[in-house]
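Human: You know discrete backbone vocabularies at least as well as I do. Show me how you would write down a chain together with its backbone fold. No explanation is needed for now; the record alone will do.

Assistant:
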Amino acid sequence: MKATDQEFELLGLLKPYVRHCGDHRRAAWRIRERKLLDYLLVYIAEGRGRFEVGGTAWEAEPGDIFWIPPGTAHEMEGYPPSMDCPFVHFDLVYRPGDSHWEWNVPPGTLDLSRFGRRNHPDLHHPLLDTLPGRIRAYNNSRVGTFIREIVTEHRRAQPHCELRLSGLMLGIVAEILRGQESLAGNYDEHVPLLEEAAAHMREECRKAPTITEMATYCELSPSHFRALFGRHFGCPPRTYLRRARVMRAKDIMIGSPLNLSEIAARCGFANVHSFSRAFRAVEGLSPSEYRRAGARQYSPPSEENA
């Protein structure tokens, strides 16, 4: 598929830099009105709340994404009992002399002039200008998976981590824009159902549904489901499920006291041996090697606000 001129323009602009991220569950919470120096992306995995961005308020529900550009007044609230909302603070344009700062902008901060060049430069582009606020699209859960992968990679802080994080952010931007295109109705009619089936596989990877069950849900025959799934995701459902289980295992391994057998069981593997084979096939190293490498750099995330 040939890229448009707008896509090439955007590709020339974007050099993402991940500053801060997290995925801890929060009890009822609220952040009063403020503005940020950088971008903030929040995925509502569980729970409900209220977000206001640029003067427009929305009720936040599971599956929603909120895109908050720098310099945009916003406030956020999570309702009781709790909310699971992975988030990432990032620059879309990395600036070597100005992007390296680490602190939380406190509630009530609306005048950013004193921060000077640390403010992210204005970045207006037709493909980005429609994103601020709440985003609802068929592939939002895939964006949520990208954010969780960013959190895991950020915690491990292994060599060339920044390059990997930048690539994941580009993937997020592409997925969000792809979801926006679907609103025009020019995507295959089965794509939303395929995305729902894949999201179910990721969320329920311990006891994933069978091919027949997923095909029935999508109102397809098993053979047609496999063919469409492979065309859309670039791999068979079985391979996709294996990757989802390995991703879940990576989330658990860093900073968790569980042994590999317990992690294997939690992620749907028959035993630790099948877990190790699948992990090496996906990641190129054993679970033990991955865990040792991450343990050298990992420190538990603090319970900070987004």
In short: The chain has two domains: 7-182, 191-295. Residues 146 and 168 are 7 Å apart (CA to CA). Confidence is low (pLDDT under 50) at residues 183-187, 296-304.
